[in-house]
Amino acid sequence: MRRISLALLTTLLLPALAAGASKDTKLTLVAYSTPKDAYGQLISAFQKTAAGNGVSFAQSYGASGEQSRAVASGLDADIVAFSLEPDITSLVQKKLVSPNWNKNPFHGMVTRSVVVFIVRDGNPKHLRTWNDLLKPGVQVITPNPFTSGGARWNVMAAYGGALRSGKTPKQAIDYLGKLWKHVISEPTSAREGLSAFLGGRGDVFLAYENEAIFAQKKNQPVQFVIPKATILIENPIAVTSTSKNKTQANAFLKFLRTTSAQRIFAQNGYRPVVKSAARGFDFPVRPQLFTIKYVGGWAKVESKFFDPRTGVMAKIQGSSGG
Q1: Number of domains making up the chain
Q2: How far is CA 157 from CA 76, 95, 137, 215, in A?
Q3: How far apart are CA 18 and CA 25, in angstroms?
Q4: Are both 208 and 308 inside the same structural domain?
Q5: What is the pLDDT of residue 201?
Q6: Which entry of 11, 32, 52, 141 is 20 to 30 Å from 120 by CA?
Q7: CA 250 to chain centre
Q8: In terms of domains, do 239 and 253 share one?
Q9: Residues 157 and 25 in one domain
Q10: Rounded to an integer, what distance in angstroms lies between the CA atom of residue 147 and that of residue 313?
Q11: pLDDT in tens, 164-210
């Protein structure tokens, strides 16, 4: 009888213990600033699935580069979701993310976007091309490329746009120098930049397409222009090597690439990496859209443009007092 009672007690306790273990699972998501609203919705949707049942989340949002450096310096993270690939690969070099993080059909990416001009309602300065940004009196806001991933996308969109217009690489760099003379504010992150623009600063804010859609959904009096030549933004995500909850973390990444989750991203203005999820959404195709490979790829771009001592942008900011 005692053996039977113990067996029965074990049978009754095991499901309860398993449920308790599930409820104790807490994932820490460290991400760049702009997808905060989207991830709030996605986490709620994931928690309604079998894989997400009982999983809770701690969330941290900020400028992509700063978030990456924080994780490198010891900030706890199970999942890192950044604006651009180098912010992940820097963690690979520190053995905080697996070298195989992008060995999947999505190449490690979870969303896409494009660089746009967010302008005042009615576009009073008639800003439609990259050259229009050099008109006398035009004031530009873009985040700081040494803290913000979105800002680096802006720089490469402007540089590539100049190349697409027929300029040589040297002339395209000269264009960046002229453009930065019109920059009146360089906030830390893309979301801070949007707040500054909505607060009344500047004539145009260089930003992700999803930030423009976000502002419009909040009934802000803005519109956006997608220049004929712009860059395809690709946003990466990875599970950290130090995660103690890899099974649940990988389940969340798998969920994020389902059609239903990608449609939530699309509702928040992001271009899905799952093609079927884009049905019913209007994401304009631009005739001179290019990728980071067109301007040399991230390895070359990081060294040439964003080295804090010798890079093109360090020199440009230095010459303008930045």
Answers
A1: 2
A2: 33, 31, 22, 21
A3: 11
A4: yes
A5: 95
A6: 32
A7: 19
A8: yes
A9: no
A10: 12
A11: 999 999 999 999 999 999 999 999 999 999 999 999 999 999 999 99
